[in-house]
């Protein structure tokens, strides 16, 4: 048993699809919140999405948790069916504890070879008692007892998650949880029981997909058109009833091509709109996004990245859609690319993207990923920024002259009307045009519009939100870790470990990727050695930053594809190696 409660504890519940492993993890996360702690719940399922293997991966502690750890402290296996398919996501060692049901099949050789302590608990047998519980609820009780979660918190978690299914379900779950709690041997506990907080501050439990939806609503989005795709579908499911309550609508389009064109139509009519998709869908939307850029119609596309190419690994995370988001549009098509940095930040970044798209009259692509979109975190309530509604349009100045929708203004942002406004009609299509919108193939018109569409982005002051910067100032840092998206959590934790060894470290997590704020990035890096951390096989972020001359020549790259999450230990090892190789500090 360790009494150092500041170190996050990592637990996992595994079993065949349908065994209730994911439900068990969700109840444990609710118990974490009820105990006044923070947590991050990731789920692992096979590429078939339903059936097969499943695992709930929970990490919790007294401070917010944003990434997977290096190892698993406690594994509860309801059975061993297909366990080998995700065993590498649950790294065990001699300090790990494994709870195994004797009825769950033969212990895998890899589990025995890990040296972990094995304790047999008959989850299924205990659930077959008079209360008619379920094996996964017995596992919740045993895991909670050994992980230091108090019984009242576990029971509260079950009531919160299962209350909608009726009193009988909650009663049966409570029976199983109590049985498991009593079966756990206190001598094997990894943590002492945490006292329940006297006054619990309100905490939210939400996924990145839900947070992105919330940010969209707060920024004024009232129309969504999309085609379902893993791992973005939950965002659409969350939005549908809430949009309706706000007077908006969500429409399931026949495909991704239709959905992007529908949101262009909505925005053309003055209603802020959004679609959500993943890699294959983004590929289909790129031509439509180009239409939005050319017609200067504000739209937002949330792309929840997964393993690729093609169908790839739909249920696992990767950051390999970056190149498509940056470069996928044909022609010279300046647009916005943003990346959410953690689950709560999905709300802020999506809302910011909506407001920027309308302020600058262009298309914005927001990059999330499966690790953010489908993971659930206990976090502080998200501040409501609903007062900052999008600047929907800049109406034409009063006068008797012709309406120039695409006038070449000083800042590049032209007056925008909506259909039906007297005297403000214009031609809007994908053809190049002059100031009035009438199609034109004249070189002067083409150059003027290209310059205008670029200038309005290049000259805009995006403020401090372009990145999240933490740690030593650029003048003092020996090492700068540069990253984006969900890798921010692992980079921040790795930086804390490096600082504990006496190294001055800065972290720069890029929220605005296009247009790149190169001068600001140079200033943040200073003279430090640089390691770029990302989850892609082709080092897409590293190559992009180098192409933009944003990195020193000696910068190093840590780029690894999914499906395994990067760990703080990997980042620490890569940073140490980079410094040892002589990267200037």
Walkthrough of the structure:
- Helix 1 (21-34) packs across helix 5 (151-162) and helix 7 (208-218) runs parallel beside helix 8 (233-245).
- Helix content is 35%, strand content 18%.
- Strands 6-5-4-1-3-2-14-7 form an eight-stranded mixed sheet.
- It is built from 18 helices and 20 strands.
- It has 585 residues and is of the alpha/beta class.
- The model has no long low-confidence stretch (mean pLDDT 92).
- It has four domains: 9-201, Pyruvate-ferredoxin Oxidoreductase, domain 3 (3-Layer(aba) Sandwich); 206-379, Thiamin diphosphate (ThDP)-binding fold, Pyr/PP domains (Rossmann fold), CATH 3.40.50; 393-460, no CATH class; 463-580, Rossmann fold (3-Layer(aba) Sandwich), CATH 3.40.50.
Question: How would you name the CATH homologous superfamily of the largest domain?
Answer: Pyruvate-ferredoxin oxidoreductase, PFOR, domain III
The CATH class of the largest domain is identified as: Alpha Beta
Strand order of the largest sheet: 6-5-4-1-3-2-14-7
Mean pLDDT: 92
CATH architecture of the largest domain: 3-Layer(aba) Sandwich
Shape designation: globular
Structural class: alpha/beta
Number of strands: 20
Unreliable spans: none
Distance between the termini: 40 Å
Largest pleated sheet: 8 strands, mixed
Helix content: 25-40%
């Amino acid at each position: 048993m360790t009494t150092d409660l500041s170190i996050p504890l990592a637990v996992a519940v595994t079993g065949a699809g349908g065994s209730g492993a994911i439900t068990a993890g969700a109840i444990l996360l609710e118990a974490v919140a009820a105990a006044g702690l923070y947590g991050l719940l990731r789920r692992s399922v096979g590429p078939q999405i339903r059936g097969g293997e499943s695992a709930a991966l929970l990490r919790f502690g007294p401070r917010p948790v944003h990434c997977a750890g290096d190892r698993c402290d406690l594994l509860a296996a309801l059975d061993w069916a297909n366990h080998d398919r995700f065993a590498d996501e649950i790294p065990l060692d001699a300090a790990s504890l494994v709870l195994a049901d004797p009825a769950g099949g033969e212990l895998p050789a890899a589990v025995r070879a890990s040296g972990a302590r094995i304790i047999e608990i008959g989850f299924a047998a205990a659930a077959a008692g008079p209360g008619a519980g379920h094996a996964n609820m017995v596992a919740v009780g045993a895991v909670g007892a050994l992980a230091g979660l108090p019984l009242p918190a576990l029971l509260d978690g079950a009531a919160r998650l299962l209350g909608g299914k009726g009193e009988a379900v909650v009663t049966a779950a409570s029976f199983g949880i109590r049985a498991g709690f009593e079966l756990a041997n206190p001598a094997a506990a990894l943590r002492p029981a945490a006292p329940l907080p006297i006054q619990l501050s309100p905490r939210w439990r939400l996924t990145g997909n839900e947070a992105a939806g919330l940010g969209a609503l707060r920024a004024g989005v009232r129309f969504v058109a999309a085609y379902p795709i893993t791992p973005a579908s939950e965002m659409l499911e969350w939005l549908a009833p809430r949009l309706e309550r706000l007077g908006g609508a969500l429409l399931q389009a026949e495909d991704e091509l239709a959905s992007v064109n529908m949101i262009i139509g909505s925005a053309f009519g003055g209603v802020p709109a959004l679609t959500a998709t993943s890699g294959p869908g983004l590929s289909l939307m790129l031509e439509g996004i180009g239409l939005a850029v050319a017609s200067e119609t504000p739209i937002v596309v949330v792309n929840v990245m997964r393993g690729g190419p093609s169908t790839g690994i739909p249920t696992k995370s990767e950051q390999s859609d970056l190149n498509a988001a940056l470069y996928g549009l044909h022609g010279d098509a300046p647009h916005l690319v943003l990346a959410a940095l953690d689950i709560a930040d999905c709300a802020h970044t999506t809302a910011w993207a909506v407001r920027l798209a309308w302020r600058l009259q262009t298309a914005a692509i927001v990059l999330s990923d499966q690790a953010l979109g489908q993971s659930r975190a206990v976090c502080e309530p998200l501040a409501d920024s609903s007062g900052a509604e999008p600047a929907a349009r800049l109406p034409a100045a009063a006068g008797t002259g012709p309406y120039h929708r695409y006038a070449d203004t000083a800042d590049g942002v032209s007056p925008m009307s909506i259909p039906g406004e007297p005297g403000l009609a214009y031609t809007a299509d994908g053809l190049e045009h002059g100031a009035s919108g009438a199609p034109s193939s004249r070189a002067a018109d083409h150059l003027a519009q290209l310059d205008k569409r670029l200038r309005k982005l290049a000259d805009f002051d995006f403020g401090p939100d372009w990145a999240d910067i933490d740690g030593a100032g650029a003048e003092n840092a020996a090492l700068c870790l540069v990253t984006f998206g969900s890798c921010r959590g692992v980079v921040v934790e790795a930086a804390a470990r490096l600082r504990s060894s006496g190294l001055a470290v800065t972290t720069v997590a890029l929220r605005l990727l296009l247009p790149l704020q190169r001068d600001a990035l140079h200033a943040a890096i200073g003279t430090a050695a640089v390691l770029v951390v990302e989850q892609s096989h082709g080092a897409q972020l590293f190559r992009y930053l180098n192409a933009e001359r944003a990195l020193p020549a000696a910068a190093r790259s840590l780029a690894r594809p999914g499906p395994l999450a990067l760990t703080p230990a990997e980042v620490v090892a890569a940073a140490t190696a980079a410094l040892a190789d002589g990267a200037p500090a």
